[in-house]
Amino acid sequence: MVNLGTLFGQASPPLLGLDISTSGVRLVELVMAGKTGIRLERYASEPLPRGAVVDGNIENIEQVAEAVRRVWKKSGTRIKLVALGMPPASVITKKIVLPAGMSEDQLEMQVESEASQYIPFALDDVSLDFEVMGPSAGSPDDIDVMLAASRKEKVEDRIAIAEAAGLKAVVMDIESYAARAALDRVNLQTAGAPQDQIVALFQIGAQVTHISVMLDGETIYEREQPFGGNQLTQDIVRAYGMSFEEADAKKKSGDLPDNYQAELLTPFLENAALEITRAIQFFYTSTPYTRIDQLFLAGGCAVTPGLLETVASRTKIASAVVSPFKGMQLSPLVREQQLRAEAPAYLVACGLALRRFD
């Protein structure tokens, strides 16, 4: 069996979370603070050239490795072991039910046999991993096992990037799993959080919005929509004749002409809220569920001025922007005001860094 290196494996501390997205790379280092606390020791980001990563696929390993090298140096860390994430679209996951009481070798053989039914390509081309979830609810004599598989080349690309940057990949997670781990930790900070809650997480990236809906922490729905912050950047490019890089920088700094808000920002916010509302309606029509109790926004686009208010107004659902570092102590190296503005973009990187404490 080819191991995913390891998708569900135990992390060996110390460990960095390293998120490689379409727009850039983000690094997070977490350390223990006391017996139960966590401290954000350092975090950093570095932009990627357009086209270096497209739809989760690494198109230019050298450019991405160079960005990883720069972000590692910028952060000031000395740790070289990293947890990386795979895009959800690149990983096939399937919960299977197997008889309890098998040895590790028997379980491995059975998982590989079952995997051939769900994977549409040769097992020799696949990195495969699994995790025993526990007793099966439907049968006390069986166990639930989560199977995960990805094309070997996609895993190897990310490992090669880490190695080219002088780092070593020791954990390979799924980005959506890492995001949910970070969100679960944030939700645990809320004392007395009610049970039976349906929570929707919208991670709005540069090109894609990833939607996860959870019931009591278990994922009940997941999909992606081709919508992201680059649409606003492209509007700025067309309206003011800037380069993409200049438009993106001025979008973040707010250094734009007086008509920007009325003519570009407000229509973008309305469009974003419409995309989210449509996604929610699709969730209602394609599942047995008819409500969402809490909506969270994350990703680099989540802090766009006015987005949270527009989404809350259109959806009529309690909405908040996620800060994955909520409740953590902060290192003196971390500037709190800057962190507040940037934190939602670090949800995946934070979730990857949390693998240190598995």
UniProtKB/TrEMBL annotation:
Record-annotated SHS2 domain positions: 15-183
NCBIfam families: pilM
Gene3D superfamilies for this protein: 3.30.1490.300, 3.30.420.40
GO biological process, one term: cell division
Coiled-coil boundaries: none
InterPro entries listed in its UniProt record: ATPase_NBD, FtsA/MreB, PilM, SHS2_FtsA
Protein name: Pilus assembly protein PilM
Species for this entry: Massilia glaciei
